[in-house]
Backbone:
């Protein structure tokens, strides 16, 4: 790993890096920055927390400083999947550009549209945006990317997963076709990346710290659970056992987030939740409180799992198993940042065992089994396991096709056979010839059905 000062960057950027205390370049910075400075298109796969944000910000800032364009239009566009990640990237850019004239603007949902129009008219050197809102501006003609020099697609796989493929294409078409393209993703194997990279010019692929590698500095454990109520008790107990000061809890749904947050608040924890329905200003306030330590527990959907840089997260708890190995990796990546020790615990119920096993298999690791005092689950795991680690179901008896066919024919024949008329019609004594108990006698029933009507 080389020293950050050895990278061929503008002196004002090196000054900012020195103030921030950056000494060594990370693996992705060491490989991506020189290639980006040389003007190459890049497709980079790097694990969360690897320093990839600086890997694209520093070349952009250096290019703007080395070749000034007075009174020019926007020179770089950074596209990200979520508002939180956009805000965080803007903050990093401001830190790195502290000793320069470079300005940035942010375009995202949840903010006043007319204020964003004013931002775009000022032509800041760098625009940081989320896809949905930026497309609105493109359709209304409030953007000008004809002189754009660099387009960055950060967390590209996540944007595709969120359904932004069409928006990404629209944005790319609105930009200068001679631009440089920098794509950063958790994986380069996503099916949609081939379509996106069609506009790239002989991109160089860089893969650093594959997400399938074990986080050696993060202890990963699993705790078996019976149901939601049991999981709620386990979360509180684990926070106490670990004496954690800053905890991320991930849920799959918004309802789970709110419900768990209410339960923990009732238990006197300083807790808040974020998901897609929370207003932007409120989300921003909650994130700042969590960063500053005013909140002990933050309950979130996977919205918050990607790219958020929050220091000193002691513990990550997966209240529900992640939908995929990639999502699990990004959840777990909230702890153990910058090589520090961290711990992640996944709560697993009977209907989540197979999904948990799939994640283990995908990542090539095994979660260590753990129990919590006085909260041991009745569910002890599958009785039988397949070689893959998934639960083995009961084997069905093999049926001979010929025998099955013969049985079906016999059944169909029996249904088609007409019933005997003699078994249905009454005889002269009003008794049925059909089989019946000899103790039952049938008498004549007339009139209202309750007996023989007497003559008046």
Residues:
């Amino acid at each position: 790993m080389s020293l950050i000062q050895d990278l061929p960057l503008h002196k004002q950027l090196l000054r900012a890096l020195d103030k921030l205390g950056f000494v060594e370049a990370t693996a992705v910075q060491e490989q991506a920055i020189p290639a980006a400075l040389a003007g190459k298109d890049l497709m980079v796969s790097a694990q969360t927390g690897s320093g990839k944000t600086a890997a694209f910000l520093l070349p952009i800032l250096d290019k703007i400083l080395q070749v000034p364009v007075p009174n020019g239009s926007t020179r770089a566009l950074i596209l990200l999947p979520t508002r939180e990640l956009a805000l965080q990237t803007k903050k990093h850019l401001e830190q790195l550009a502290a000793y320069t004239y470079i300005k940035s603007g942010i375009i995202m949902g949840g903010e006043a549209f007319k204020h964003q129009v004013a931002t775009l008219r000022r032509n800041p050197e760098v625009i940081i945006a989320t896809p949905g809102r930026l497309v609105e501006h493109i359709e209304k003609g409030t953007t000008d990317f004809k002189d754009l020099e660099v387009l960055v697609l950060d967390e590209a796989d996540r944007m595709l997963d969120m359904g932004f493929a069409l928006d990404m294409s629209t944005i790319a078409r609105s930009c200068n076709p001679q631009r440089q393209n920098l794509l950063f993703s958790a994986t380069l194997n996503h099916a949609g990346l081939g379509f996106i990279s069609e506009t790239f010019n002989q991109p160089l692929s860089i893969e650093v710290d594959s997400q399938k590698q074990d986080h050696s500095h993060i202890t990963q454990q699993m705790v078996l659970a019976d149901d939601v109520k049991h999981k709620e008790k386990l979360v509180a107990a684990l926070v106490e056992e670990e004496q954690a000061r800053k905890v991320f809890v991930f849920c799959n749904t918004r309802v789970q987030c709110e419900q768990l947050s209410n339960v923990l608040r009732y238990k006197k924890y300083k807790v808040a939740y974020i998901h897609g329905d929370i207003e932007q200003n409120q989300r921003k306030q909650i994130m700042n409180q969590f960063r500053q330590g005013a909140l002990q527990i933050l309950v979130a959907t996977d919205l918050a799992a990607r790219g958020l840089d929050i220091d000193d997260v002691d513990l990550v708890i997966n209240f529900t198993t992640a939908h995929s190995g990639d999502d699990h990796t990004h959840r777990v990546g909230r702890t153990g940042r910058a090589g520090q020790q961290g711990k992640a615990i996944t709560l697993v119920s009977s209907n989540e065992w197979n999904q948990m096993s799939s994640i283990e298999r995908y990542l090539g690791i095994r979660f260590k089994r753990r129990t919590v005092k006085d909260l041991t689950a009745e569910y002890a795991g599958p009785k039988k396991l397949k070689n893959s680690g998934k639960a083995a179901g009961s084997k069905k008896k093999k049926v001979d096709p010929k025998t099955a066919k013969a049985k079906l024919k016999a059944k169909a024949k029996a249904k088609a056979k007409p019933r005997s008329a003699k078994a249905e019609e009454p005889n002269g004594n009003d008794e049925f010839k059909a089989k019946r108990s000899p103790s039952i006698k049938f008498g004549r029933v007339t009139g209202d059905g309750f007996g023989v009507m007497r003559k008046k």
